[in-house]
Amino acid sequence: MASGLSRRDFLKLTGASVAAIGVAIATPRLGFLTTSTAIDNPLMFYPNRNWESVYRDQHQVDSVFKFVCAPNDTHNCRLEASIRNGVITRIEQPYDIGSYQDLDGNHATANWNPRGCLKGLAYSRRVYSHSRIKHPVVRSGWKQWADDGFPRAADGVADRKYFKRGEDEWVELSWDEIAEYVAMGMENVATTYSGESGAQMLRDQGYPEEMLETLKDEDGDYAGIRTFKLRGGMGFLGATRLMGMYRFGNMLSLLDDNLREKGAEKSLGTRGFDNYAWHTDLPPGHPMVHGTQTFDQEFNDFWNSDLIVMTGLNLVSNKMADPIWWQSLIERNGKIVVVSPEYNASSPKSDYWVQIRAGSDSALNLGIAGLIMREETYKDDFVKKFTDYPVVIRTDTLKVLRAEDVPGIAMVDPGDTWLDEHGEVVQEMDEELKTSSVMVMKDGTPIGFDRNAVGDYLETGLASNGYTLDDIDLNWSGTVATSDGSINTRTTFNLYIELTEEYTLANTSKLTDIPEETIRKLTDDIVKAKNVGFLTGMGSNMYFHNDLINRAQYLVATLTGNVGKPGGNVGSYAGNYKAPVFNGLPSYIAEDPFDQTMDPTVDGRDIKKRMKLVFESVHFWDHGDKPLIIDTPKEGRVVVTGESHMPSPSKVVWTANANLLGVAKWHYNQIANVQPKQEMWMVQDYEWNMNCEYADFVFPV
């Protein structure tokens, strides 16, 4: 019973006399049977409610701290965690973005509020997950191999009894102990595969000679350090900790120098596994168009758009932290069009929904581009000043006609245009890129121009030769006299005209299942809008012809002048990959390990650099850790992979924030046949995953 009186005691008491009960009521054990206190005026009396403090204090905290939720999703929300008894009790939005400022005192706007999504608010579940990695561990078999002195057969292969990945027990070590084992293993592998003896072991293991060439230094000696592969993950705000893997790979040239005594100039660093090309949700067509990785406009740039065309993307469902910006577009009477096969969660927010046959996005965009070119509703000045559409192409080779091949041609060459405040060149161009192209005027005169003749530089250069932008023959097709004789040429624009001829309204409608009037309406809306944001996502990047989809989207964007301006751009919101434009990373990754810059006040651009790391695509590891080599009936053995992309043998793999094995295609082959070739597999992560399960070392973060 609630009073602590047992049923047996209660029955004993009830058998007593009434007088005895009267006495018993006075005892504490039967005090619960007393009547309530009589209160004549309830307004003058309030009962004791100290017990409510337990209820009222349940949200009391000991402290709070701010952190950034930084997954690979382009948001990076700053949140506030509350701590009680050393445990996170809740995560909330701090609503303090208006107070943010950079080193120059520039403030952010409070319009970014609110930040965060339900995933971020529940992040503490991952912090205290049963899968959380808490201690550094080494696989018992690998540890035994090290303790036995790294025994190997004549071909360098260790006994399989040491490499029962996925079956072995794990041994917990201190950080100092595990660091010793890692250092011993790295030194052993680098030593084993250095020199001619190491190269012979790799030959005996079946690696082709082309792969062994990648291990050579400038003296032709083999460096085992090149069998190391390091990979940092994608979270941008983890730049120093994740890109630190590549810095470490560059620093390991010190290990190579220690082992081979080649000095600072000839010692080599490791190889670095890439990120961008490996992730199949990213748009490969973007770097094909503009030469750099994808660079989305920020979400707040939606504010500057008049029209948003969303395709392959569902912002409502997967970009929960930033709906305010496209909601603001709705409030300002902007227009939103959602192009998707199904009526997804974003569709109700649009002005109209375009239902498209899955995977036919390239056909839709080529149809729109064809209409724009045939009806001449493109932005003429933008197309001529900022695109390669006026560039002349040789029809015999389908390559760009170089100005160097046209004798006596007039040139538009503004020289170096990217200068600092002192007039010094910020970035020099490689010699192989210092080449010029040709455009043809309406009077048939060819004019040469170099890579820096863009925008106003082109217009000014044409004026010095007596021409204007209007004089450029965008749709040129004819012969040009070259040092090799007269050759047929066409502009890029003319070739696109031919490409889109078959994408009539009727044909485009058949290919995409979109009514002709809807294609016409979408085209007109794009042409009429001042700033169009083409928002794409990983949905359209999952197709085998994804590069064609990406390039067709850029075709429409460039024709209408919607690239590189506020509110007008092409973005693929499939992750966060802005490391290439993070100015400090080159100095951080490539700082000279042999002569570090110790002055903390030095300008980041003046940090001494010595790049020893070489990047490599993970695809070759996923292809059986070998290049693409084909045995053909006529040509025999053909090495398709070129020297610039040739992989090296993989013996040491270290990943951070990247579940490489868990996401690898041809997964069984990697586990059963490829990973056994690797002698050290190291993982640093915060939750146990497939990559950890088959690792040799696992480090918590």
What share of residues are in beta strands? Answer: 15-25%
For this structure, the quaternary state is single chain
CATH C-level of the largest domain: Alpha Beta
Task: Count helical runs.
Answer: 28
Shape designation: globular
Number of strands: 24
Low-pLDDT segments: none
Number of structurally distinct domains: 5
Average predicted local confidence, pLDDT: 90
CATH topology of the largest domain: Rossmann fold
Q: In brief, what are we looking at here?
A:
The protein is of the alpha/beta class. It folds into five domains: 7-51, no CATH class; 58-127, no CATH class; 137-276 and 586-700, 3-Layer(aba) Sandwich (Rossmann fold), CATH 3.40.50; 285-374 and 498-572, 3-Layer(aba) Sandwich (Dimethylsulfoxide Reductase, domain 2); 391-473, no CATH class. Helices cover 30% and strands 16% of the residues.
Structure overview:
This protein has five domains: 7-51, no CATH class; 58-127, no CATH class; 137-276 and 586-700, 3-Layer(aba) Sandwich (Rossmann fold), CATH 3.40.50.740; 285-374 and 498-572, Dimethylsulfoxide Reductase, domain 2, CATH 3.40.228; 391-473, no CATH class. The protein is an alpha/beta fold and 701 residues long. It contains 28 helices and 24 strands. 30% of the residues lie in helices and 16% in strands. The strands form six sheets. It has an eight-stranded mixed sheet. A five-stranded parallel sheet has the order 10-9-8-17-18, with helices on one face. A hairpin with a 3-residue loop joins β20 and β21. The longest helix has 18 residues, at 175-192.
